[in-house]
Amino acid sequence: QVQLVESGGGLVRAGGSLRLSCAASGRTFSIYAMGWFRQARGKEREFVGGISRSGDRTSLAGSVKGRFTISRDNAKNALYLQMNSLTPEDTAFYSCAATSGISRSEWPPPTVPSYNYWGQGTQVAVAS
Fold first, then answer.
1. Residues pairing with 50 in the sheet
2. DSSP for 47-61?
């Protein structure tokens, strides 16, 4: 199995940027498709973006498309989420997740139950 640890969260003003990182340890990182999810207070956890095992396919939720970028570095066992033009609506607890049993260039699944492993998460707060 894989262990995931997020970092990079914090408080930022609207319009600012943050870069979240997810460090993986355990099994070979490249066998997992990866995703970022977030959960705002009082709301369900939602898909933010995902990336295929090889990194050649990424998908982003409509609400963050054009502002967020997801990437991975398999040599460093790391997943990233670059968040630009942040708004107060982006305030949430962000978690990275891994799923196995996905072929190398298969699109990352956008649903919570598709992911087997989860990190502890990191809080992002955007002040207006």
1. 35, 59
2. EEEEE-SSSS-EEE-
pLDDT by residue (tens digit) across 13-27?
999 999 999 999 987
At 102, is the pLDDT very low, low, confident or very high (cuts 50, 70, 90)? confident
Whose tokens are 């991975």? That residue is 72
User: What does R_g of the chain's alpha carbons equal in angstroms?
Assistant: 13
In order of 6, 53, 116, the CA distances from 104 in angstroms are 23, 5, 17
Least Cα distance to 30 among 99, 94, 110 occurs for: 99
> 């790391």: which residue's tokens?
78
